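Hi all, long-time lurker, first post. I run a small reading group and we've been trying to get comfortable going from sequence to structure in the token notation. Rather than ask abstract questions, I figured I'd post a concrete chain and ask someone more experienced to write out its structure so we can walk through it together at our next meeting. Sequence below, copied exactly:
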Amino acid sequence: MKYPGNLLYTKDHEWLKIEGDEAYVGITEFAQGELGDIVYIEVNTVGETLNKEEAFGTIEAVKTVSDLFMPVSGEVLEFNSEIEASPDVVNKDPYGKGWIVKIKLTDLSQTKELLTADKYSELLG
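-- Answer (accepted) --
Happy to help. Here is the structure in token form:
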């Protein structure tokens, strides 16, 4: 598996792509592989400001339902409408079209606690 070097990662298998004071959040290729075929994603937190590690939604696969956690504190600005209509996009393109939410960062210093691609790869062994 490959992990893009321009992203930051969490131990809960989310990724963060920072663009100024905003960022995109999704799940890693490893996470989507473990979940299997994704059938539904629910995000009811648009417009809310959440703390790091708070659940911002759920992801449902054929086998299980899992919470989605904020990698850093921020306001949820947008839910990806493309995956709302076709959740399997997360399986096909987890680092591109399969992003889940866009957030406004409220504490940029928290990004220092996230993992680089190399550190995330080491975590997985």
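A couple of things your group might point at:
The two ends are 11 Å apart (CA to CA).
The mean pLDDT is 96.
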